[in-house]
């Protein structure tokens, strides 16, 4: 019963936060100067995604327009020459919440993995429709997909993890 009440309170808190995406001048959006994420290798892929599908994922900024999440989208938009970008102002979050969310949002995606069979099915289906996703790093070759997964597994046994940020590297 108590657990149910806590869940209800958590849901109510989440749903009470007002969020609205608005188009603003890119000049009003400022990169966070201490962004620890090296995203340069992803900028061209995000640029291609925006050019193909549109600017569909807003950049989250604090009340001063400093980026909380979306540095790669911001860099891609600049590279495209966009004058406006879609943003969500996180006005109700404290500075500590902003600082921690900035890190957490980037970190949690690292815990996801691909279901190779489903991925191959989706890619094959899109390929039959003439939709090519190779510019985004996808391959139709099942051997490449399995090899990529195996490489990830092999690296995990020889990786070191930073105790502060959780970043891993191989030696």
Structure, described:
By secondary structure, the chain is an alpha+beta fold. Helix content is 47%, strand content 13%. It has six helices and six strands. It has a four-stranded mixed sheet. Helix 2 packs across helix 3. The chain is globular. The mean pLDDT is 85.
Structural class: alpha+beta
In total, the number of strands is: 6
**Quaternary status of these chains?**
single chain
Roughly what percent helix?
Answer: 40-55%
Shape: globular
Strand order in the largest sheet: 1-4-2-3
Q: Spell out the helices and strands N to C.
A: HEHEEHEHHHEE
Unreliably modeled segments: none
The radius of gyration computed from the alpha-carbon positions, rounded to a whole number of angstroms, is 19 Å
How far from one another are the termini? 50 Å
Percent of residues in beta strands: 5-15%
Q: How would the blueprint of this fold be written?
A:
Elements: H1 2-16, E1 21-25, H2 40-53, E2 59-61, E3 67-69, H3 71-80, E4 84-89, H4 95-107, H5 116-128, H6 142-156, E5 159-161, E6 168-170
Parallel strand pairs: 2-4
Antiparallel strand pairs: 1-4, 2-3, 5-6
């Amino acid at each position: 019963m108590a657990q149910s009440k806590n869940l209800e309170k958590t849901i109510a808190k989440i749903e009470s936060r007002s969020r609205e995406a608005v188009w603003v001048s890119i000049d009003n959006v400022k990169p966070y100067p201490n962004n620890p994420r090296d995203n340069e290798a992803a900028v061209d892929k995000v640029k291609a995604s925006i050019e193909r599908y549109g600017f569909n994922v807003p950049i989250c900024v604090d009340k001063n327009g400093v980026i909380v999440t979306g540095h790669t989208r911001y860099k891609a938009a600049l590279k495209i020459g966009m004058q406006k970008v879609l943003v969500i102002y996180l006005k109700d979050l404290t500075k500590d919440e902003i600082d921690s969310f900035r890190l957490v949002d980037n970190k949690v995606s690292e815990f996801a993995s691909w279901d190779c069979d489903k991925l191959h099915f989706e890619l094959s289906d899109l390929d039959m429709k003439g939709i090519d996703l190779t510019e985004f790093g996808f391959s139709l070759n099942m051997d490449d997909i399995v090899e990529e997964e195996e490489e990830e597994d092999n690296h995990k046994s020889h990786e070191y993890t930073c105790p502060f940020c959780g970043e891993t590297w191989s030696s």
